[in-house]
NADPH:quinone reductase
Amino acid sequence: MSPRKLVRTVCFHELGGPEVLTIDSLASPSLQATDVRIAVKAVGLNRADAMFRRGSYIEKADFPSRIGYEASGIVIEVGEEVNHFRRGDEVCIVPQMGLSQNGCYAEEIVVPSEYVALKPAGLTFDEGAAAWMQYLTVYGALVEIANVQKGDAVLITAASSSVGLAAIQIVKALGGIPIATTQTGAKKAALLKAGAAHVIATQEEPLLDSLRSILGENNLKIAFDAVGGPQIAEIAEAMSPEGTIIVHGALSPETTPFPLKIALRKSLTVRGYVFTEVIKDIERFRRAKQFILSGLSEGTLKPVIDRSFKFEEIVAAHHYLESNQQIGKIVVELD
């Protein structure tokens, strides 16, 4: 048997900053009956990637570890039981768990066919690599759990991230009112341009007073929070009775208190959430793919690309990811 092709693959062999990332040559994975082999054209970076690399993510690395949730590319081979993809198809990778083994930062990847989606014709490869984590995360929280309806006010924290911008788009598509937060006023104009109805700079404006000024008291129906930390109490105080706070991130280094008395007084739902809730449920996953593909095809969902890097610049790309300068998605392109 001839040796398997060697594929340039981003790995890390210890936890740490961007400098721990290396480009290794690994044997191309074997193809199982239900798999698809893809020549990667672009990979999308996510905050979760940096947390995974540093050891602070919900999933822990198994060294030497691969990295990366999403990518886009061209199908070059399909397993014998795959009949809905063929060689030459342009596709996107839907995030799956198992980053150490399944990381997408590579020239070539093998993916179970259920985690592959045709790339809508109107999307570039960069946009295709930037779409699925953000929209899948938001879909599960705001469509399946919160059931955003026309006129609902929705608070979106850390709104300049790709997930935050996706939330603005989805809330608008559902007829809700997206209220965005960012740390300083530097990104306010960009968030308003992206579709936010209101923007609060939390280092410059008091969050609770600002929400009450915008909405009046007790009129915030849903909060989609990526930050956690002490501000969760202010968010709870702004919520309407029987409102829902969905915490999907932990960007704050401070402890996140549970606002017990406010939750009791207002009958609030406060719950943690991660996108895997969607991919683990066959019916939810099917509905999510239909919703996202429809939005991408119709243009109501449009990934925002902040900056692209070359594959060899992966360390620089991760430094930029951790700088918090970006508005939207960071993409790494392959030749």
The first helix runs from residue 47 to 54. Residues 66 and 102 are 7 Å apart (CA to CA). The chain has a mean pLDDT of 93.
